[in-house]
Specification:
By secondary structure, the chain is mainly α. The chain has helices spanning 2-33, 53-66, 73-84, 103-112, 128-138, 143-152, 154-157, 166-172, 190-204, 207-215, 220-233, 240-252, 260-267, 305-312, 338-354; strands at residues 43-47, 93-97, 118-121, 181-184, 321-324, 332-335.
């Protein structure tokens, strides 16, 4: 009986040890699958095309510590290192990491290569160099690579412009882009960017739009340029067809367009102006529509679809003058005669004086 009792004790000890071992494994597994930072904020990881697991681990740790009220670096480091011990390199891209992810869930997402998109807004860009700067801040490739791609592909990006100066050709590249907010992958190249947006532009420019452009005596390029002027004049899209009609009247009557936004674009001022100075009107630039008749040689802004449609479906009227309304309404008063226009202009000047706008 004593021998049997000892045997039972030995078996019980083995079973107990095995059970404890299994419980430790299960506890460890559950622990490793628990959230790294419960209720933590979502953060993003950017993995470059040249990366290693150690650099990615460090970026994760930095993000975890920033998003935690009381960061425990050793705790985070141990859990991340345990999960990443066999990792070497990950597919490049931007990855949004849920604050409740465990280290193994993070590893799984990074290994999947399923990138999260980057939102990219281009409806407020005036020049190709500003676009390059914005691109470099949003994507893996920088502004230098963006401009290099543009210059090496001008014949494709700005067709039929080989006889124009380079700076104008570069600006013409914008005329095949539609202002909007788009989603791309962080690893998208300038080639990816232009390929997608040029296709969207070609799809937008239908035979019906070509017919409308022809009916008002403009080419596709001229429609875009005029749309950029209209956009420069107003943020009120309901008023855009009225302004487009006014400029078409001036073109048809062989008048100077006298558009302030074109003057400011030519000067390339960084100031926010509510008044164009008298000396500005004398600044010699092909974009100065107070000096040169007709449309400028290229767009002064990336244009949204709404403004292109405003030109193609411009309002029919006899107005050839306009002036901003007093009170900061964002709208304009329109006039047929210069005398009527002067009355509106005087009221607006008095308004600017009243709020101490000197320029």
């Amino acid at each position: 009986m004593k021998k049997l009792s000892k045997r039972n004790k030995k078996v019980a000890a083995i079973i107990g040890a095995a059970t404890l071992f299994i419980l430790l494994i299960v506890a460890s597994y559950v622990f490793m699958l628990s959230p790294l930072n419960p209720n933590g904020k979502e953060f993003s990881i950017y993995i470059s095309s040249i990366n290693n697991a150690e650099a990615v681990e460090n970026e994760i740790l930095d993000s975890l510590c920033k998003g935690s009220k009381s960061p425990n670096l050793l705790y985070y480091k141990w859990k991340v290192a345990t999960a990443f011990k066999s990792a070497d390199k990950f597919p490049p891209g931007k990855y949004n990491i849920n604050g409740n992810f465990s280290s193994f869930e993070i590893l799984k997402k990074l290994n999947s290569g399923n990138q999260d998109p980057v939102s990219f807004r281009i409806d407020n860009i005036k020049t190709i160099h500003k676009l390059a700067e914005r691109f470099g801040k949003k994507f893996e490739q920088d502004s230098v690579q963006f401009i290099k791609y543009v210059n090496e592909n001008l014949d494709v990006l700005a067709p039929n412009t080989s006889d124009l100066p380079r700076e104008i050709r570069e600006q013409r590249v914008l005329e095949r882009l539609l202002g909007d907010t788009y989603e791309f992958y962080w690893t998208s190249s300038p080639e990816n960017f232009f390929s997608r947006l040029n296709k969207l532009y070609n799809d937008f420019w239908t035979s019906e739009k070509e017919s409308n452009a022809s009916s008002i005596g403009l080419t596709e390029h001229q429609v875009y340029v005029l749309a950029s002027i209209v956009r420069g004049e107003t943020a009120n899209q309901e008023e855009a067809p009225q302004i487009a009609g006014l400029y078409l009247n001036r073109l048809q009557q062989n008048m100077l367009l006298q558009s302030d936004p074109t003057v400011l674009f030519g000067i390339n001022t960084k100031e926010k102006r509510q008044r164009v100075r008298h000396q500005d009107l004398k600044f010699d630039s092909p974009y100065n529509t107070y000096l040169y008749k007709g449309l400028p040689p290229a767009t002064i802004h990336i244009v949204e679809k709404t403004y292109i449609d405003a030109v193609l479906n411009a309002a029919s009227h006899d107005y050839i003058f306009m002036c901003a309304q007093p009170g900061g309404t964002g709208k304009h008063n329109f006039a047929v005669t210069y005398q009527e226009h002067q009355q509106y202009a005087k009221k607006y000047q008095l308004y600017l004086d009243s709020i101490d706008i000197q320029r």
